[in-house]
Design brief:
24% strand; 141 residues; 2 helices; elongated
């Protein structure tokens, strides 16, 4: 179908016809609107603050899963790795690591973070017993 010149005016019907004729897409019917919920039904259970449900509901993520891997693990230290699930956001976890570095507990070789995963590759020559008792406490309290 030839395009109209600038002097010709297009009506909405002509534009729709042009798009319909030039389109090879199959259209699907619109989804049905959700049915109203029963007013007497109890509210859904509350979820933890940092909960993410996968699209296909095959898994759930709560908070941040954090891993520390010590690259200085030698016979003089027994701190090789540590893993823990925290119930806070990633920002609080990065501040926790910054606090550890400021205290001189370890140095950061590499830090990788996503909203629900933190991996710290660190260098620490201390024994686990020499690390502070509350070092691995959840920053959310």
């Amino acid at each position: 179908m030839p395009l109209p010149s600038e002097s010709q005016t297009r009506t909405p019907e002509a534009v729709t016809a042009q798009v319909t004729l030039s389109s090879n897409l199959n259209t699907t019917p619109a989804a049905k609107p959700a049915e109203p919920k029963d007013a007497d039904a109890p509210p859904p259970p509350s979820k933890p603050k940092y909960h993410v449900q996968s699209i296909d509901e095959s898994y759930s993520i709560f908070g941040v899963d954090a891993i520390w891997q010590n690259q200085y693990a030698v016979p003089e230290t027994d701190f090789i790795a540590f893993r823990k699930r925290y119930h806070c956001d990633i920002g609080a976890m990065i501040l926790l690591v910054a606090g550890h570095v400021a205290q001189g507990l370890y140095g950061v070789i590499s830090l990788n973070a996503t909203p629900h995963m933190l991996v710290v590759v660190c260098g620490c020559e201390r024994m686990r017993a020499d690390l502070p008792a509350g070092m691995w406490d959840d920053p959310s309290g």
